[in-house]
Amino acid sequence: MAMNGMNMGKLMKQAQDMQRKMSAQQAEIDQQEFTGKAPDDLVVATFTGDRKMKDLQIKKEALDPDDPDMISDLTIAAVNDALEQIDETTKNKMGQFTQGMNIPGL
Description:
The chain is an alpha+beta fold and 106 residues long. It contains 2 helices and 3 strands. The relative contact order is 0.16.
């Protein structure tokens, strides 16, 4: 089934429009802040949507000299929580552009 020049031009314009909208949506996500928390908010990690850590707060109760691994576990929990929020937001907001398509990573 051959497409004439008119249909191909329209298709290309639609693709460019979609790409502009996707870029704008991604830029909006990148500017958002996501805050991940460990249990009892002992460690709180704040990231921007482009996965750059902006802040890390550690409560003194998390610093137990008898359990040095606890601070690592709490930090990992807070960081993973924030990253999961970024992934979920990206999937929800960008999914409108990829609905029905099988694109790995989205």
